Amino acid sequence: MNVKQQRTAETINQQAENITKEASVLYCQLSPGSEYCGGGEESRRALEQELLEHLTALANAILMNSAGLFEAHLFHSRHHPADAVHDQILTQQLTALKQVLAQRLPIAEYIAAAGYLSAAFKELEHPVLAVEPTPPVISPLEAPLKELADAYLAHLLAGKRTEAINLLRKEAKDGIDVRLLYEHVFMPVQWEVGSRWHKGEISVAQEHYCTAATELAMAMLHPYLQKTPSNGFSFVATTVSGDLHSMPVRMVSDFLELDGWTPYFLGANTPTDGIWKAVVGFKADLLVIGASMAHHVGILRQLISAKNNTIGANNVRVMVGGEPFNADPTLWRSIGADAYAPNARVAVEAARTLMQKK
C-alpha cells in the first residue's frame, strides 16, 4: 500500500467529524434554500450523515487506490432518488467537501483527494439515466427460464407472494436443479427489481416486499437442494456490521453446501468480533464475506486485518464478493482477501482452489 495514500486516508478519517460539520455549514451557504438548511436539527444531522458517507467512501477509495470504489458509491448516491435535482444536491455536497478538504489537507494529500472528486463532478455532468446499468445481453440458451422468471416477477409486483413461490416449488418438485432457479430466476429478478426501484418505477416498499419474498422462496426451496457427500471442509458466511443485504451471501452459502461443504450461515450485519468467534468456534476452513455498498469495504478490510490477532484463525481463507468488488475486480487484493467471486457458481470453484492451496 502506498504510504501517501494511507496517510491521506488516515488524515481524512481522523478529521472526519470536523470536516463534515464545516462542509455542512458551507453547503448551506452555497445552497441557502435547500431543505437540509431550514428544517432544524434533524435536517442538519441528515445532511452531516450524507456528507460523512461521501467522505468515508472517498477515504476508502484513496486508501485502496480504487477509482471504481468511489464510482460505485457515486452510482448508488445518484439513485436516491434518480433525478436532476438530486444530482445538483450531490454536486453541491461534494463541492462543499472539496473546499473544506482544500483548507484542511496538506497540498499533496489534497491533490490525491481532489482527483477522485473531479472525476465525480465529470460524471455528474451526464444525465443520471446515462449511468443506469444495462443488463447483459443473454441468449435464450443462456436464459432457459426467462418465462418462469417473468411470471415470478409479475406475481411479486402484483403482491402475490404465495403464487410466485408456488411456481418455483412446482419446478423443484419436478426435479429441476435448484441452482438454475437461483441463477435464472432469483438473480435476474432481483436485478430487475433493483433497476425499477432506481428508476422510480416501484416504491422502496415494493422492493422490500419482492426481496423478502425471494428470501422466503430460497428458504422453502432449500430442502430440494441436491446435496453431495461431505468434502470435509466447512465455512462461515455473513456480511459485515452495518450491511443488511444477505441474499447474495445466502446464495453462495447454498451453492457451497450443495458442493459438500458444511455451512454456518450467520445472516447479515454481524459484528467483527462475532464473526471471528464463530469462525474459530466452528473450526471453519473458509470465511465468506459480502459487501453490498462501497462504505462497507473499509469495515471488511478491518475484519480481515483482525484475523492476524485471532488465535486459531491463521489457516482460515477469506473470500469476498459484492458490488464494490464487481466495480473494481482488483479491490479484493487491496484489503487482504484470498479470493473474490462475482457470483455463486464461481465462488464454488474459487473455494475449491483455496482448499487445494492449504
Overview of this structure, please?
- This protein has 358 residues and is an alpha/beta fold.
- It has 3 domains: 3-131, Phycocyanins (Globin-like, Orthogonal Bundle), CATH 1.10.490; 146-224, Methionine synthase domain (Methyltransferase, Methionine Synthase (B12-binding Domains), Chain A, domain 1), CATH 1.10.1240.10; 234-357, Cobalamin-binding domain (Rossmann fold, 3-Layer(aba) Sandwich), CATH 3.40.50.
- The protein has helices spanning 3-14, 16-30, 41-63, 67-78, 84-104, 107-124, 146-157, 161-173, 178-198, 204-221, 247-258, 272-281, 297-306, 323-327, 331-334, 344-357; strands at 234-239, 262-265, 286-290, 317-321, 339-340.
- A 5-stranded parallel sheet has the order 2-1-3-4-5, sandwiched between helices.
- α11 links the parallel β1 and β2.
- α1 (3-14) packs across α6 (107-124), α5 runs antiparallel to α6 (107-124) and α7 runs antiparallel to α8.
- The longest helix has 23 residues, at 41-63.
- It is globular, with a radius of gyration of 22 Å.
Radius of gyration equals 22 Å
Number of strands: 5
Count of domains: 3
- Percent helix range: 55-70%
The major pleated sheet works out as: 5 strands, parallel
Number of H/I helices: 16
Write out the CATH superfamily name of the largest domain.
Phycocyanins
CATH topology assignment of the largest domain: Globin-like
Name the shape in a single word.
globular
Gap between N and C termini: 25 Å
Please mark out the parts with pLDDT under 50 across 5 or more consecutive residues, or reply none: 130-141
Q: Averaging pLDDT over every residue, what do you get? A: 89
CATH architecture of the largest domain, please?
Orthogonal Bundle
Strand order of the largest sheet: 2-1-3-4-5
Structural class: alpha/beta
CATH class term of the largest domain = Mainly Alpha
String of helices and strands: HHHHHHHHHHEHEHEHEHHEH
